[in-house]
Specification:
Distance between the termini: 19 Å
CATH class: Alpha Beta
Order of helices and strands: EHHHEE
CATH superfamily: Ribosomal protein L22/L17
Shape: elongated
CATH architecture: Alpha-Beta Complex
Structural class: alpha+beta
Number of helices: 3
CATH topology: Ribosomal Protein L22, Chain A
Radius of gyration: 17 Å
Helix content: 25-40%
Length: 113
């Protein structure tokens, strides 16, 4: 049994958020929460919220919280909000505000550690 949580249209680029999902994938959830808590990156807060939401769903289904493992952690590209920045001599430079979809799934591992 696995439980999934998503944060769609997160205002962070997928490239930056993937750095943290690669760190927590396959780890026990309590260890992953601690890693995200002490990470200086801005994406750690967003990924941490999604992970805690998936853990809360597992807790509602009365899963063994000590055996929860991050089964899947991925970040997909979301839509890009396109803007223009005024520059000198009447020019305009494009700005791309990237979004992402953060998906985290947790599952119970067979034996407790």
């Amino acid at each position: 049994m696995s439980w999934t949580a998503k944060h769609r249209f997160a205002r962070i680029s997928a490239r930056k958020a993937r750095l943290l999902t690669d760190v927590i994938r396959g780890r026990f959830c309590d260890e992953a929460v601690e890693l995200l808590r002490f990470s200086p990156k801005r994406a750690a807060f967003l990924v941490g919220r999604v992970l805690k939401s998936a853990m809360a769903s597992a807790n509602e289904a009365e899963a063994a919280m000590s055996r929860l493992v991050v089964q899947e952690a991925r970040v997909d590209d979301g839509p890009i909000v396109k803007r223009f920045r005024p520059k000198d001599r009447g020019r305009a430079h494009p700005i791309q505000k990237r979004t992402s979809h953060i998906i985290v799934s947790v599952a119970e591992r067979g034996a407790a550690r």
